[in-house]
Amino acid sequence: MAKMSVQGLDEYALRLSNLSKNTGQIVRQAVYEGAGVVADSIKSGLRQIPVDNGRGTEDRKLHGITNRQKADLIDAFGLAPIENRDDYIQTKAGFSGYGKTKSKKYPNGLPNALLMRSVESGTSFRQKTPVVRKAVNRSRKAAVQAMGDKIDELCKEDMK
């Protein structure tokens, strides 16, 4: 019968054990990295929204938003803190707060999430301008690549 001698197997097993203990932290950092790529793409898309200072009607739909609304959306965009819900590590991109332009209907200002939804999907008086959808689709491969690179980097550090 053949005899085999392996050196360092205990050390390798210890490193694998340490790696499994750090898996949650590694995944969180990878999600953060990927979310940053997508968020940068969305911010870039927000800057590309056309400006239209007119009033929209069903016959003449708006092709953009006002300069003030554009600035409000850029300022309001952000990522939620990374959370672990049912062993699913995630974050969300969204728009918070209210715009600076107050009206009778919105005395605190138009909710930024409502404005972005009307820009993204369109309304009876606004032509749709899918910013978020296009940005996510455009950056998906780069985000996956960034997350994979981050995982590789952190795994190599743990395995040293």
Describe this protein's structure.
- This protein is mostly helical and 160 residues long.
- The protein has one domain.
- 54% of the residues lie in helices and 8% in strands.
- The strands form 2 sheets. The chain has a two-stranded antiparallel ribbon.
- Helix 2 packs antiparallel against helix 5 and helix 3 crosses helix 4 (112-121).
- The longest helix is centred in the C-terminal third of the chain and has 29 residues, at 131-159.
- It starts with 8 loop residues before the first helix and ends with a helix.
Distance between the termini: 35 Å
Give the number of DSSP strands: 4
Structural class by SSE content: mainly alpha
Integer-rounded radius of gyration: 23 Å
Helix content: 40-55%
Secondary-structure map:
Elements: H1 9-21, H2 23-47, H3 67-76, E1 77-79, E2 83-85, E3 88-90, E4 93-95, H4 112-121, H5 131-159
Antiparallel strand pairs: 1-4, 2-3
What key attributes describe this structure?
mainly alpha; 160 residues; 54% helix; two-stranded antiparallel ribbon; elongated; HK97-gp10_tail; 8% strand; two-stranded antiparallel sheet; HK97 gp10 family phage protein
